[in-house]
Structure formats: structure tokens, C-alpha cells
Design a protein that fits this description.
InterPro entries: LysR_HTH_N (IPR000847), LysR_subst-bd (IPR005119), WH-like_DNA-bd_sf (IPR036388), WH_DNA-bd_sf (IPR036390). Keywords: DNA-binding, Transcription, Transcription regulation. Belongs to the LysR transcriptional regulatory family. This is LysR family transcriptional regulator. The chain is an alpha/beta fold and 304 residues long. The chain has 13 helices and 12 strands. The strands form 2 sheets. Strands 3, 4, 5, 6, 7, 8, 9, 10, 11 and 12 form a 10-stranded mixed sheet that branches. Strands 1-2 form a two-stranded antiparallel sheet.
Amino acid sequence: MTDMPEEAGIGLRRAQIFREIIRSGSTRRASKVLRITQSAVSQQLKLFEEHVGEKLFIRDRRGLIPTTRAVEIYNRIDRYFDTLGHIEREIFGSFAVARNSLTIAAPHIVCLSLLPKLVAELERTDPSLEFYVRAQSYDQIAQLVLTGEADVGLSRLPLDERFFEWQSIMASRSVCLLRPDHALAGKKFLTAEDVASERMITLDREFSSNLMVMNSFAHKGHTPFVNVRTDAVGFSAAFAAYGSGITVVNDFIARQCEVFNLKTIPFRPGVVHEYVVFWRRGSDKVSRQAALIGAIVDYAKRCA
């Protein structure tokens, strides 16, 4: 990786760096994509913000969260880069024919369960459709839809209504997944006290759902033994299936994990998550494909 020469004003390269920070959500990931040092990315962002005259990101444990002003600037810059891309393709004689395509972003386990069935259903309706499926975390799904890299996302609330529109597909409560031969498999519901001494499989600490589960244990004065962590939503079920422990997910995710033949038991006190199909507010492509989006929502409601 290399540093960068100084550049006056905003400049094309500085705008490209800002655009990539928005897309990737952090200076670290942007530096890897752009193949320059993270310090160079941070310095260019600082200069970009000075030129604009205000801070464009809020820092939290998830990374850099763009402000409303940052999203407005990004949308303009992104259009400019799209135009440059079109010009470049025309220069090289690549006059692409518009395709009937849809990019869907969803949690990893959903891309292995619900989405293949959804795509098969939609293909029967319109064989000309082309799909690009992006398996990501909840925050990354929102980022892809926000930047236009995904047309629709399947995720859960909360989402920022300034940037997104959505339709609900189901409300989902906390459940435990465990092997059918587990000693606790006969219970009607499980509490923090029931599983406090069990080995646990959880998401990374940065996931809000994991924090909620851990807080339910802390509230009762327990510290669970976590022996496996994963950063892929729903993958904890695979470890539970092979006897590594118990995992607390929600009913929507549990339904995506039916292939593992685990016992699903309500967990109390539980948390309710609302799952939605969502898209960027004001998206022209979604407006043109309203019937297709409606079909996705209807299918997700039936089969989630």
C-alpha cells in the first residue's frame, strides 16, 4: 500500500476516497479496496471535511456512520462516477444492453435458505430476471442498499426512515436452538437461569442482538460461558447441531436453520425483532419494479 500525493480542493481522487468510505463503512476497509494506507485515507477524509466545512461522519463501535449531509454529497458524487463509468465504457466500445436484474442483500443464513426458494419462484414468473445475492451482516445490508449497491435488502428494524422505505414481513421473538437430545430439550421455555451453566454459541460482541442476550444474563447475575463466536447471522445453528452448545437467536432466523434439525424453544425474557424487506427511499429502480418488490414481500411473508 502507498501514501498519496497532496491534491488541491476536493479533487477526483479525494472524492473517490470519500465515496469508498461511505460504501465500506470504515477507513480501514476503504484503504484495502483502494490499496493505499489507512492513514492516507484518514488524512484525505479530514481534508475533504475541511473543504466541505463540516464533519460528515459519526464514529461508533460499528464504524463510521454518515450524516445526512454526507449521504447527500455521496449521492451526487456517486452519480458523477456513474457518468464517468458510462463514458469510459463508451470509449472502449462497450455499449451494454440494459438487463432485467435485481441485487438482493440479506443475512448469510437467509441467502442459504429463504432466498434460493424466492429466486426459484420469481424465475418461474419471469425467466429473464438476473439476480445478484449479497450475504452480509445487518449493518452492511443497510450500507449496500443506502449506496445503491443492492436494490433491496432483507433485514430487521430499526432502520433510518430518512433513507429507507420498507414493508414488514414478520415479528420474531427470541428462541433457543439446541440438539433434540439435549437435557433441556423437553422444556416449554428456557430462561437465563436455565442456560447460564451451558456452553453458548453467539454472534460477535458488536452485534446488538448479542448484547441484548448477554444483558438478559447480566440482569439475572449470570455470566454465560461462550465457547464459540461467529460474525455470520444464523451460522451458530451449525455449531449447535454438532453439540458445541446452545444458541439464542430469533424465530425468523430459527426457521432458516431447519436443515440442522434442532429443537426450537422460546427464550425468556425475550426480545421482539421486526423483519422487513426494504429499499432506498426514492429509488427509481424500485419504483419501476414495484410489482416485483411486491411479489418479494408477499413470498417472504408466506415463507419466512
